[in-house]
Every structure is written in C-alpha cells, then in structure tokens.
Write a structure and sequence with these properties.
This is Histone-lysine N-methyltransferase set-23. Keywords: Chromosome, Metal-binding, Methyltransferase, S-adenosyl-L-methionine, Transferase, Zinc. With about 270 residues, this protein is α/β, with parallel strands linked by helices. It contains three helices and 15 strands. About 10% of the residues lie in helices and about 25% in strands. Bound molecules: S-adenosylmethionine (SAM). The site of S-adenosylmethionine (SAM) has 17 residues, from strand 7 and strand 12.
C-alpha cells in the first residue's frame, strides 16, 4: 500500500490499515484474532486483466467491482455504480494476475492523492477531511482504519467517549447476511489513518463499502458517491449504510447535535446502536 499521509498531532500513531486492539484473555478476543489472522483461501488464475465471470475473485464478487477510465492518460479505477456493495472482493497475493493492472485491486493500493486535514468552518465539528482535487463518483478515497475491536471493547470505549463528551471515533459496520448481522468495530481514536478526520453528514458525498482482499474481516473503504469539487469536505453518513438516521426519541436524547448543515439534516448524529 502507498499511503503518504501522516497525523499533525504527535499523540496519534498513523496506521495505514487495521491493527488489532489491546490484547485480552477472553474468547471474544481470541475469536476476533483468529478471523483477523486467517486469510481468504480463494484466488484467481487469470493472466493479465481479470474479467467476469472467469476470474474467481470477480465471480465471488457477483460481478465486476471496478471499471477503468483514463485520467490525463493514466488508467484509474472507479467503483461500478450498479455494484452490490455487500460483495466486493479484490484479488490477493495468492492470485496469478498482475498486481499492477489486473483491474480488481484498488483499496489495497492506497488512498487518493490531494486529501487535506483542516479545521471546519463550524468550530464544534473540529477537524475535517477536504479534497484539493476534483474527485469523480466511484473514486476510492481512503480506508477508515484503526484498531480492530471486539464488541465489548467498542461498547466500553463508546461509553467512555460519551462520558467525556468529546469526539468519538468508534465505527460499527453492520453487514446483513442470511438473516444475521456481522459487525466490525474499528476505532482510529489513537491509532488510525487519514480516514479518522472524516465528519458525518446527513447528505454525504461518500459512503462506506466493505471490501475484502486478504482477511475475511472487511476494510471499511470510503468511496465517492457523487462527483466532488475541489476544496469540498469529504463526508459519509455515520449510520450504517443500510440503516438510515432515525428521528430522535426519548431513548436517544443523548445523541450529539448534527452540524452538517445539509438541507435534510436529521438534527442529530446517528445513534450508536450496537
Ligand atoms: C471520526 S471523528 C471526525 C473527525 C473529528 N471532527 C476530529 O476533529 O478529529 C467524529 C467526531 O467528529 C464530530 N463530528 C463529526 N461529524 C459531525 C457533525 N456532522 N456534526 C457535529 N459533530 C460532528 C463529533 O464530535 C464526532 O464524535
């Protein structure tokens, strides 16, 4: 992966991709580490460009994940807009195809260029992530990477953050699969990448797509869901991509006020219901 970004804050440690959270001597942690350290066993035997349905990785993805376009004479990949985003499996180290141009490797290559961290116009939002370049719909922005936590660790950290009343970086990805929900918890609060600076919006220009290429644990990959002009803030909806914001009720009065200023702002940040 090529990731040249860094934190301006020396108290934070930059990690390009997820790393295990603090070790615990319990079954929940052991189970998480077992999955984290296991590898996807399928690989393709394509030579050169991977095409659907011959490529095993694309077959497992239920169709091509990305399409190519020329950007100032350079080939770039964009997420297919008709793609089932629950199933994005990139080629991996075991695959026979070429790492540089198989057409099914994007998230593993690293974030887009031109991302800038700066203070938001609305002070209370803190820092935000902005783009200095024009970004096309379907562009991979960056991962939301940090410590991979068990559910108990995530709940504890979330409670502590709520009590402190400061920023909360713990994100829960819910994947709905055959009637069950598989949850992935990532906290870039202390160890994280550039994605930790992305703020929430009720009308976001990006969304999170679970992408797998090495371990069965998905990368929380942030993609542009529309074209984005230079100097715009990068945002995604902190609610799961399946569950939209819910109206505030008595049970969620503790939710933070949302300052996204979008026309359809729900007024509150999505509630962490895990
Ligand atoms: C993942 S961090 C985003 C980066 C953060 N703004 C910073 O300065 O590092 C999430 C935190 O940012 C703030 N935040 C993000 N989006 C917001 C929004 N739309 N309205 C108000 N606060 C927001 C909240 O405090 C939230 O807990």
């Amino acid at each position: 992966m090529t990731d040249t970004y860094a934190h301006g804050d020396s108290r934070l440690i930059y990690t390009e991709t997820n790393l295990p959270g603090p070790s615990e001597d319990n079954d929940e942690y052991k189970e998480l580490m077992k999955t984290f350290n296991s590898r996807l066993t399928d690989y393709c035997t394509c030579v050169g460009l991977c095409t659907y349905p011959t490529c095993k990785c694309l077959e497992k993805s239920d169709g091509p994940n990305y399409h190519m376009y020329m950007d100032h004479g350079e080939p770039k990949l964009l997420l297919n807009s008709n793609k089932n985003i629950n199933l994005v499996i990139e080629c991996n180290n075991e695959c026979y195809c070429l790492t540089t141009n198989c057409g099914n490797r994007l998230v593993q290559i690293g974030p887009v260029n031109g991302l800038v961290v700066k203070t938001c116009e609305i002070d209370l939002k803190g820092l935000g992530l902005f783009t200095s370049f024009y970004i096309r719909k379907g562009t991979f922005i960056c991962e939301y990477a940090g410590e991979l936590l068990t559910k108990s660790q995530a709940v504890t950290r979330n409670k502590i953050n709520q009590l402190k009343g400061g920023m909360n970086y713990v994100f829960c990805l819910n994947e709905h699969c055959n009637g069950t929900v598989v949850q992935t918890f990532v906290d870039p609060g202390h160890f994280g990448n550039i994605g930790r600076y992305i703020n929430h919006s009720c009308e976001p220009n990006c969304h999170i797509v679970p992408v797998r290429h090495d371990s069965p644990i998905p990368k929380l990959a942030i993609f542009a869901r529309c074209d984005i002009e230079p100097d715009k803030e990068i945002t995604f909806n902190y609610g799961s991509y399946k569950d939209d914001n819910v109206e505030p009720t008595e049970s969620n009065v503790n939710r933070k006020k949302c300052l996204c200023r979008s026309k359809n702002c729900a007024g509150y940040m999505p509630y962490d219901t895990y």
